[in-house]
Design goal:
α2 crosses α3. The C terminus is likely disordered. Strands 3, 4, 6, 7, 8, 9 and 10 form a seven-stranded antiparallel beta sheet that branches. The chain has a six-stranded antiparallel beta sheet with strand order 14-13-16-17-18-19, with no helix packed on it. The chain is α+β, with helices and mostly antiparallel strands. Helix content is about 20%, strand content about 35%.
Length: about 350
């Protein structure tokens, strides 16, 4: 009986030893597996390259220099200067190193300076200066060299040139009967020939491009010769009907319409130039003073245009590109006379 007891005791002890060994073996296997899994995960993480930091290129605030559009100077040194800048920017007009006048650009970036103080006679240089958003002063890329005659009867010369001296210069005002860009346009004659065709002659500034319309239908485009003369054939007409001729004078910079004449005519009535309706089309940078000086030869006549078009001009200092202003009959006759 005692022998059986010891056999059972030894068997039980052996079972405990085997169980302990198995438990240790299984635990070690699980731990090894976890270790190996951890090593794999670390290797996978190490193989993933970190994304590089992405930085946006900073926007460079390039200063925008003010620029000239219009320069009209009279022989007594007064006149008007207009151009472009950043909206709200203060623009200074420099005569040499001195500030001659200043103005603020409007919401469209357009500014106008009327020279109340006379510029001196002789040769002088005009340039522009404005302060950028960073507070730094920026000067115009171009300068305007002005020649104001002190004794002769010649007109004023104004030439736009690159500040560096390289590049093409452009005359903004020439000392001839007409200033460059002056709004001169006239229908001289309309002749209806025996074959029922019509020949129109007129004058404008030398080299001006003109678009011709008959009864609002486009006919052709012509260019005034060196003397400012132009002519065009309208082709065959219905001689029993009344007709309307329209001539649009085009700006040399962008081919926008600047001046317009609408001339009625018919075979049954003599040609009457005074029956023509003249109008001016406002372009960017225009103001009433500059238009009156270009059309009539004197900026002070802006009131004539203002009064004729009071229905669409609330403030004579505020006119907008694309507006069409009628030119009064008596004053319009001055528009076709050479300016001195």
């Amino acid at each position: 009986m005692r022998a059986v007891y010891w056999v059972l005791a030894i068997a039980a002890l052996l079972a405990l030893v085997i169980a302990a060994w198995l438990a240790g073996s299984l635990g070690s296997t699980s731990s090894d597996q976890q270790g190996r899994q951890s090593d794999v995960e670390e290797a996978a993480v190490a193989s993933i390259e970190p994304e590089p930091d992405v930085f946006e290129e900073p926007e460079i605030d390039t200063p925008t220099p003010p620029s000239f559009d219009i320069v009209r100077i009279s022989r007594n040194g007064t006149g008007v200067v207009a151009g472009r800048a950043l909206p709200g920017q203060k623009v200074e007009l420099l005569q040499g190193e001195d500030v001659a006048a200043s103005a603020f650009a409007d919401d469209n970036g357009e500014w106008v300076i009327i020279l109340a103080d006379r510029l001196p006679g002789g040769s002088l240089e005009l340039s522009l200066r404005a302060r950028g958003a960073d507070g730094q002063l920026v000067t115009s890329d171009n300068v305007v060299v002005v020649e104001i005659p002190e004794e002769s009867d010649e007109g004023v010369l104004a030439v736009l040139s690159p500040r560096t001296g390289d590049g093409v210069s452009r005359a903004l005002q020439i000392p001839s009967g007409n200033n460059a860009g002056a709004l001169i346009l006239h229908v001289s004659s309309i002749d209806i020939l025996p074959d029922s065709s019509a020949i129109v002659t007129g004058r404008s500034n030398a080299g001006d491009s003109l678009r011709i319309y008959l009864n609002n239908a486009y006919v052709n485009e012509v260019t005034a010769d060196d003397a400012g003369a132009w002519s065009i054939s309208l082709g065959a007409l219905d001689v029993s009907a009344d007709h309307e001729l329209r001539i649009d004078q085009l700006a040399r910079e962008d081919s926008a319409v600047t001046l317009r004449i609408v001339q009625p005519f018919s075979k049954s009535a003599p040609f009457e130039p005074s029956a023509a309706a003249r109008s001016v089309v406002v372009s960017r940078g225009n103001n009433l003073w500059a238009i009156a000086r270009s059309v009539y030869g004197g900026g002070e006549l802006y009131t004539v245009i203002f009064e004729e078009n009071a229905g669409q001009i609330r403030n004579p200092d505020l006119i907008y590109p694309g507006q069409v202003f009628d030119l009064p009959g008596a004053a319009a006759d001055q528009a076709v006379s050479p300016q001195n």
